[in-house]
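In full, the data:

***
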Amino acid sequence: MLIKTQGIVIKQRSIGENDRILTILTKDYGILEASARGVKRIKNQLAGASQILCYSEFCLYRGKNYYSINSAQLIESFYHLRLDVVKLALACYFCDLAYLLVPSGEQAWDELRFLLNCLFFLQSEKKSQRLLKSIYELRMMSICGFMPDLTCCAGCATYESEQMYFLPVQSRILCKECLEKQSRELVKWLLPPAVLQAMRQIIYAEDKQMFGFQLVGHSLEQLNFITEEYTFLHTNTTIKSLQLYKQMIQTNP
C-alpha cells in the first residue's frame, strides 16, 4: 500500500553499509520510521531529500511491519542551518523535543507547521536564538497537551497583579495573596509583567502573532529558565542535543 505525506526528517540511523532508518515528523501520520534503502550511495535518488532537517514529500510503501520510502521530493533543505554548528545543535534540539512529544499514527500538521516556522526563523536570524528556544519549548508543550493555564490567578481570577507566580507542577498562576493562603510549600517562580505577557502570547496568540514580540536582558533570561525547566519537569527527560547546544553557546557566545 502506497501513501503520500509531507514531513521533515528529525532523526536518522545507519543500517548496514548503504541504508538508513529515518524518523520523520509527518503531516498526516505523526512520527513514523521508514527505511531508506541505498540512501548512502552518492547517486541514490533519495539522498537529496532524506537528510536530517530535509522537509520533503514522501511516497511510502506501508508493509506489514514497517514503512519503506519509495520516492521523496525535496521541498526545503534548511541548508544554511547545517553551516552553523550552534544553529544546527538548536535545530536538533527542536527535532528531539518533537520526537519526544508528538505521537505516532495521528495527524500532526500543527506540530509540523510550528517546527518548520521555528526552523525558518532560526535560519533567517529574525529572532534571537534564546527567544526562539523559549517560544518553541512553551508552544510545543502546549500543542502536545501540556498547556499551562495563564489566563488569570487560579485562586481569585485576577488577570494581573503586582506580583504573580507561576506554579510549574500545577501548571497555573497565583497572585501573591492567593499564594500566601496555600498551606503547603509549592515550587513557584515569580513572573514579572513582561515575562507573563510573553508567555501568554506564546501560548494563546494565533500563529502569525505568536512571534510578534521581543524580550531582552533579565526578562529573557527568566523566560529561558522557566520554559526550559517547565519542559524538563513535565517530560522528565534530559535531551542530549540541548546539553550540546548549551555547551556550544558557552564556548561561542
Remarks:
- The CA atoms of residues 101 and 144 lie 6 Å apart.
- The first helix runs from residue 85 to 101.
